[in-house]
Model the fold of this input.
Amino acid sequence: MTLTPSRRQLLPMAGHTRGTRSAATCHFKCGDACLKDEGSTSTSPAFAAVVEASLSRRNLLLGLGAVVAAAGSGAVTARPAAAAGAPGAPAAAAAGAGTVGPKGLAFTPIASVASTVDELTVPAGYTWKPIISWGDPVVQGAPAFDLDRQSAAAQEQQFGYNCDYLAVLPQGKNKALLVANHEYTNENLMVPGFTSEDALTDEQLRTSIAAHGLSVVALRQGKDGFWEVEPSKHGRRFTALSTEFELRGPVAGSDLLKTAKDPSGRRVVGTLNNCAGGTTPWGTVLSGEENFDQYFRGDANGDPRNRDTYGLVDKTGKVGTGRYWYRVDDRFDVVKTPNEINRFGWIVEVDPRDPRSTPVKHTAMGRFKHEGATTIVAKKGNVVAYMGDDTADQHLYKFVSRDRVPGRSGGRSELLDAGDLYVAKFSADGPVTTDRDGTGEWIPLTKDGESAVPGMSLEEVLVFTRAAAAAVGATPMDRPEDVEPDPRTGYVYVACTNNSNRAAAGPANPRPKNKYGHVIELREAGDDATGTRFEWSLLLVCGDPADPTTYFSGFPADRVSPISCPDNVAFDAREPGLWVSTDGAPSSITRNDALHFVPLTGPERGRVSQFLAVPTGAETCGPWIDAADGSVFVNVQHPGEVDGAVVDRPASKFPYSASSQRTPRPSTVQVRRTGK
Ligand code: FEO
Ligand code: CA
Ligand code: CA
Done:
């Protein structure tokens, strides 16, 4: 059924979106975050201001004609004249010369793709195939996808919606386990005849709840090198509807986590808005609960530590509708079940190898809008996890385990149950070189099992972590998303996707038209990931390379691909170089979102080369890189998320199968080198 515009309810963000971002994206993806004020109350200068100071110092050097050799890299700090001198130049075409990429994944960069194009674009010599799509069977015996016969019971056995984090974990020759997050739902693209969210039936609401969570499926590699799902006892869904998680760590069992249905404060049903993630040294997967607030109907008179700090009311004081989930479950109503929301916003751990294992939520790692968590084993043996809170002007964190590897117990680890939680404070000080813009400090929020924040108890610090970070003067950041250490060097890469909301409204933003984000390189002092001091530099200041405010670590701007709104960062296990996927290029540089490759050392440092482009309305998620296999895996999230699109009037038909003609289906895709 095709809807007439007059019958469709305007989304709350219509008329309020920043730039050209669609109202559909703001509502379904971000929970209308732009209408809320969740900026940190920290008095520390915003990271944007620190960046401004650094860039000013860098520009001053350039204005004096200084060219400083970068330690160990041979690169220079000089900004190439081409970057400032060629506005309007066809950067994509200029970037396309030559072959780039690591061994096993050499490619000729593609030109950026207009944001209206409904194609998955890959380099010459590469071919792509979908592995699994929304609604495909996951659990053995699950029903096949049927757009007109959806149910919560079926969805609980099928691949969820809007796949985000992605891991492809080898399990011996030609076998692997695929783990995917399912971050959120677009009911307008899922439900035939959709009119408005409040018109959804209870069964449709339960189906949406079941479409959240994670999936695990077994894969087998065919002779052609492409991976396919095979029925397996490992097939498993973790959903927001019915999967029980164990709360662990210092806050488990505290009064703040107890509800009438769970007086223990240790068992919680479901996981929400699972965004990015990472693998652990012991083979499990971590997943971040991000914009969990949007599923709860707020309480105007409720605990301000949630109401204000975690976005349960908008700037006018209006409470959120919680996607109407409260209609099918009281726990999504903060008035009726005030503590339920405290049981979301954590880092989740699942063991894909054991289909009977109980998934965990780790309270020692703090509660905020977790983008994800990635781990590295420090020289001393402690496990260190890096984490971003993806909201404008929120913070960057790390967790250092108290105990050291191996510390294992079965398939999971107790290493994440106890440790110190830190938040980052940046300074622009000292000399500027290519790979150094300033220093920083990790400020403890918890230390040796106790609160390190004056006036806050341990459980308050861990449940209301944003307030704790603000209290110690953490640096407000430009939406830190994925944060990942390079497994070869331990250097940490922080994708700050943008801060356009703040930039439009706040005088402190040094790049008021900065809709494009940046990537920071962070180097722990003494290469000790457990330490409290670091140096940092700007690896990339993103945007159209013709824009003179962009910066690519000194690499000539006329030889890089346009890049905007970096979101996920990833490394291959064996081949050096950073992979960066984007979320927001359509609304900022009017190009489809992308996956890029960026060398980190030598004369190619900072050379951004575009590997692929996702279809219109989509975001590039995952990614998972396997150069030895000649494969790149990505999750194509929210294809066709374009204002006005509904089932039977889609903006995208991705992945272009018979079953996706009426509406697109978010999918995991393998891109494989098949030619020369
Ligand atoms: Fe779910 Fe911050 O992206
Ligand atoms: Ca993300
Ligand atoms: Ca990552």
Remarks:
- Residues 5-290+345-356+383-673 form one domain.
